[in-house]
Write a structure and sequence with these properties.
The protein is an alpha/beta fold. Helix content is 49%, strand content 19%. Helix 3 (86-106) runs parallel beside helix 5 and helix 5 packs parallel to helix 7 (163-172). The radius of gyration is 20 Å and the shape is globular. The termini are far apart. The mean pLDDT is 92. It binds ligand C2E and calcium ion (CA) (3 copies). Ligand C2E binds next to strand 2, helix 2, helix 3 and strand 6. Residues 23-278 form the EAL domain. This is Bifunctional diguanylate cyclase/phosphodiesterase.
């Protein structure tokens, strides 16, 4: 038994050692990528099912690693958060996204609003609001053309962290706020309030297979009715099939985003997509 225990122990410490090694390497390369601002931004359109109009376009970070190829955000963002690097990465991404949207705006391309993801660590930086306003001004993008996608848990953050006041300040300038991954967090209905929030984004897990999963249909319908009753916009993410679009349309969930509309695209390609659809 003693021997077995020892074996298990060394097995776990080997796993742990490798895990830490992997994280250290990733962290090292991430610092270089931040310094070189080599994180890229992809854009995924959001459209209205009833009018076909473009409601928005979401910026999604991409990291093309020199030797490892594309590393998905789901893999490196948790490491970035643990290493205290997420705020720096977020700024590279937000600045690049706002720069692109500023160009589209000047070119007269219709894109609704640029939506950027913002995590709690980014929002907790004391000068996040100043950074945002400076960037909008420098790139010539009106605040009304920007929306921040924030997960529920961050919005519900204690007033003491200053996040709530910062978000009110940002919103009072005309920037929209939305609850991302809605339905997966600690949905406190007291924060689903049109005085604080402009849009709810229904999480992918409720949208996928909506046409064959009765429970998902009920959840999406309930969220859609809640939003409509309160006068908050609603969007479904992760719609992959025509059947899902049909179900969403019949429920009255007007805005959608997902592979069935368009994949996330690099800047040039996103611009072409917008140009093809601009009136
Ligand atoms: P999210 O905000 O929920 O973004 C939606 C994710 O679903 C994206 O994954 C997108 O590529 C993917 N997606 C879009 N349509 C479909 C579909 O029809 N089917 C499926 N299966 N997936 C779809 P991605 O780009 O890998 O991003 C993962 C997460 O990483 C995001 O989830 C977001 O939480 C985070 N993230 C991405 N970019 C940023 C960023 O710039 N800043 C911050 N703070 N977080 C980011
Ligand atoms: Ca998002
Ligand atoms: Ca999501
Ligand atoms: Ca998310």
């Amino acid at each position: 038994a003693k021997k077995q225990g020892g074996g298990a122990f060394s097995f776990f410490s080997e796993e742990l050692r490798r895990e830490l090694e992997h994280r250290k390497l990733l962290e090292h390369d991430m610092r270089i990528a931040i310094a070189e601002k080599s994180f890229q931004v992809y854009f995924q359109p959001q459209v209205s099912l009833t009018t076909g109009a473009i409601a928005g376009i979401e910026a999604l970070v991409r990291w093309k690693h020199e030797t490892r190829g594309m590393i998905p955000p789901g893999e490196f963002i948790p490491v970035a958060e643990k290493s205290g690097l997420m705020a720096d990465i977020g700024r590279v991404v937000i600045a690049k996204a706002i720069r692109a949207a500023g160009e589209w705006h000047r070119a007269g391309l219709q894109f609704g609003r640029l939506a950027v993801n913002v995590s709690g660590t980014e929002l907790r930086e004391v000068d996040f609001d100043a950074f945002l306003f400076d960037t909008l001004e420098a790139e010539g993008l009106p605040p009304q053309k920007l929306s921040l996608e924030i997960v529920e848990s961050v919005i519900l953050d204690d007033e003491k962290t200053g996040i709530a006041a910062k978000l009110r300040h940002i919103r009072s300038a005309g920037v929209h706020l939305e609850l991302d991954d809605f339905g997966t967090g600690y949905a406190s209905l007291s924060h689903v309030n049109p005085n604080e929030i402009d849009r709810l984004k229904i999480d992918r897990r409720f949208v996928q297979n909506i046409n064959s999963n009765g429970d998902n249909t009920k959840i999406v319908r309930a969220i859609t009715e809640l939003a409509r009753g309160l006068g908050i916009s609603i969007i479904a993410e992760g719609a992959e099939t025509e059947a899902e679009l049909t179900s969403l349309k019949s429920i009255g969930c007007d805005q959608v985003q997902g592979y069935s509309i368009a994949f996330p695209m690099p800047t040039e390609q996103a611009q072409e997509w917008l140009a093809l659809r601009s009136p």
